[in-house]
Amino acid sequence: MGGRSALPVASVEARLDAFESVCDTHPHVVQGDLTDRDVVYRLFEEARPEAIVHLGECPSAPYSMIDADHAIWVQRNNIEGTMNVLYAMRDLAPEAHLVKLGTMGEYGTPNLDIPEGFFEVEYRGRRDRLPFPRQAGSWYHWSKVHDSNNVMFACRIFGLRATDVMQGVVYGTRFFGSSADHPVDPALHTRLDFDQAFGTALNRFCCQSVIGEPMTLFGLGNQRRGFLPICDSMQCLTLAVDNPPEAGDYRVFNQFEETYTISELASKVAAVASDMGLDPRIRRIENPRKELEEHHYNPDHDHLLTLGYQPTRDMDSEIRAMLEDLLPHHDRIAAKRDVLLPDIRWDGSRRTSGFLDAGNGAGSGSPGEAPNRDQPDQVEPMIDPVLAGAR
Ligand code: USQ
To answer: N or C: fewer beta carbons within 10 Å in the chain?
Structure first.
């Protein structure tokens, strides 16, 4: 997407060494493509896994909405990779536990409370426990729905055991928590994207505040989502691995800490950033997505709490830690500021969103003003390395 990680990503070797110094174990790394069945089978033959934590998918909704090539690539990549894992499990590790990363976005935003995967329903006098309807909002989110159906079916027919994790929006720079828990080794920082496709809302807001660009609220900004810091995401995955279901069981965890509207998030970032001497601004821009901007949102998230999940930090302190980690990389982020404004639209066109408000500070533009980006007819066709390689 023309962006880069806001935090430099250390070499694999440096990250393994840093990991070993904190966790006393040296992970074995194999690089390969999950859509290549031979690679997956070889890996399973070597590792004979007891548990598989499957995070190996394209995670971006906007990326999947660019055009037919991207939509189809994302669905093939995600669904084929998961199918290869399921067949490798059947043939080589039938007792193993699959912890599969899904997304809260599979449910969409129905005008109902959202249970953890299943609900009791009564229809024409009969009752059953059925999967809660999925109403995903992008081709990417639908790829996760199709995965969920495939994993559920594989548990039924192959007797596999799986936990499907409906994760909310993850944020943060530190896997291992604050410096009070572990010394913060920069080699252990996660990758942190801020472009329109791979940057998630809160991560983008922090990067925008660090370089003095306005935080971009899409539309009304009242879209509500579940959020959790990346270190707690690790804690939840660990809890799932340590507490496997019975053979043949497919269970669903809704994995997030608290829900916030996008405006609430921006206000939180603004408060912490101001306190740190930055000059944060918040602006509303045309929403490039088709999504409800005001809606009911009350998902259950009891399963992980029952297993002992304890949120380890409040969002304000995590935002502060993120800003502290990002500030030294101001120039690295600023050099790519042109990837911040979205132009991938859910109707398939490419047009940079204009501002919807008057702005509240110097350089924030005037109402409806198109940002200083290429206009639609001047946009160069995108050369996408993933697709170029895949064709
Ligand atoms: N949004 C803004 N301004 C921005 C970016 C996003 O207002 O600059 C809004 C979006 O319109 C949306 C919400 O913030 O309403 C969340 O967008 P996002 O880009 O942070 O997250 P999303 O596209 O939903 O996807 C992310 C991850 C994905 C994961 C999902 C969990 O990229 O891998 O599955 O979060 S969830 O949102 O619960 O479906």
So the answer is: C
